[in-house]
Amino acid sequence: MYSKSTHFILELIQNADDNRYDADVAPKLTILYRDDGFLWIGCNEVGFSEANVKAICRIAASTKKVENARKGYVGEKGIGFKAVFKIADIVWVKSRALTFQFDKNKPLGMIAPEWTDFPTNPLVSERTMFRFRITRAKSPGLGKG
Questions:
Q1: CA torsion through residues 103, 104, 106, 107, sign
Q2: What is the DSSP string of the chain?
Q3: Is the CB of residue 90 less than 8 Å from the CB of residue 35?
Q4: What residues contact 23, with CB distance under 8 A and at least 6 apart?
Q5: What b/e readout covers 75-112, taking b as 16+ CB neighbours within 10 angstroms?
Q6: What are the phi and psi torsion angles at 9 (to 5°)?
Q7: Residues 86, 92, 95, CA angle at the centre, nearest 5°?
Q8: Can you give the pTM of this predicted structure?
Q9: CA–CA gap between residue 59 and residue 81 (Å, rounded)
Q10: Digit-coded pLDDT (tens) for 66-94
Q11: Domain architecture of the chain: domains with CATH
């Protein structure tokens, strides 16, 4: 659906913009790419609800709806988060106490999460975190590939 492998960045920024935040918190999005092939994204949103977890596992089931019939360049196409699999083969997700991963190399791996520990990184620590293992052959412009 998306011609550029970097489109997933726009999806992640749009998701951060659409998130819910505590009233006394300034929204924050942290992006860190390391030359070992891992990309980290952190956001200080309130955290995933049960509906958010179900939505990230499915296609065309977003919990985030466009208000006042205004549509931009990203979101609401039914793919959303799945765009990350153009550049990543494994995606770890942490939100509140939930930690799981998607592995596109396994049957149903892009929609069936596996419960697992979330690898830590002292440089990025937010309530909701993503860690992407970048597939080197598909990552032009994202490092020394």
A1: positive
A2: --SSTTHHHHHHHHHHHHS---TT----EEEEEETTTEEEEEE-SS---HHHHHHHHSSS--S---GGG---SSS-SS-GGGGGGGTEEEEEEEETTEEEEEETTSTTTTTS-EE-PPPP-TT---SEEEEEEE-GGG-TTSS--
A3: no
A4: none
A5: beeebbbbbbbbbbbbbbbbbeebbbbbbbeeeebbee
A6: -60, -45
A7: 125
A8: 0.78
A9: 9
A10: 444 344 444 444 467 888 888 899 999 99
A11: 7-138 (3.30.565.10)
Strands 88-95 and 38-43: unpaired
Q: What is the pLDDT of residue 76?
A: 45
With a CB cutoff of 8 Å and minimum separation 6, the contacts of 58 are 111
Tokens of 14: 């749009």
Q: What is the largest CA-CA distance in the chain?
A: 43
Residue 110, both tokens: 């892009």
